[in-house]
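Researcher: We're teaching a course module on how sequence relates to structure. For the next exercise, students receive a sequence and then see the predicted structure as tokens, so they can try to spot secondary structure elements on their own. Here is the exercise chain.
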Amino acid sequence: NQEIGFDSDFNEVSILYKSGEIEKISKDKKSVIANKIVRKIISNLDWSMVKVLVKRLDQRVKLPKYKTDGSSGMDLMAFIDRPISIMPQKSELIPTGLSVAIPDNTELQIRPRSGLAAKNNISVLNAPGTVDSDYRGELKVILYNHGNKEFLVNNKDRIAQMVLVPIIKATFEEVENLPETIRGEGGFGSTGKWNC
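Model: And here is the predicted structure for the students to work with:
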């Protein structure tokens, strides 16, 4: 998170890496040099594991974990004193007993579990739900019953999965006209009408 400053009269920049490697970039515009530095730094970061602080609101709550090395998400379990009934075409808010602090510029997406959807028609109503980096309250999941039978949620049932993802924030620049595209203002179903 450190800022990199540039002097206006330099002709060469040296980047020294932990490995001892030295890279020299010369005779480029400052913006090009900055771009190269940022890309090099990003390419050397380890994106495989990011620390997330987690708080159990009760010591009986089990911490989430990845089931396999290839898992994208971690299962969230219900933490409830008594079973919660979800009637057909209705939703219920299910507590998990967990609070988290995730890094800035990331979000936790709360997604449905494919097994619940396929076998019981149960999904996350606002999928994907978003947990912002500044939220510190309990994680709760809005489960919706798409089926025609009552569904019972029991304590420690796996009810959803959460995936940590990076986000890109936007700054808006108001303009009179937008760049033209082949699609233009074509909306729903319009992309199948062209011969390319």
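Model: If you want an answer key for the exercise: The helical segments are 30-44, 114-120. The longest helix spans residues 30-44.
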